[in-house]
Write the structure tokens for this entry.
Amino acid sequence: MAILATNLRKNMDEAFARRLYFAIDFPFPNEEQRARIWRVLFPAEACRDPDIGFDALGAELRISGGSIKNIVLNAVFLAASTEQSIGMQHLLHAWTRSAPARLPRARSAALPNDTRCPRESDDHGSPTCNH
């Protein structure tokens, strides 16, 4: 038994694809699903800012669930390195680091424009964790 995964199914050789007995398509998440993915990746006990805009992230960042998971993980490490709660600035900084060549030219007002890591900024506005 072999399990294969690809996001480039259209590029698969037709003769090879015919030999596969089962193919399961996982559709790209829509805006609501992406917002929910952002929310569920933070457990209740996570040390995070309460004002993270999950709906804005779901609406503005058209990325896969796996990418969201990687961004959250990187944001956790960024926040930990500055001993801060996980905030929007950490998530957006992790996002810009994840795919700089694919960043949209303009974003809506729903997301802050400053995506620098707090460690690189003069303003360390994130609250510290009270847990």
About this structure: Residues 14 and 20 are 10 Å apart (CA to CA).
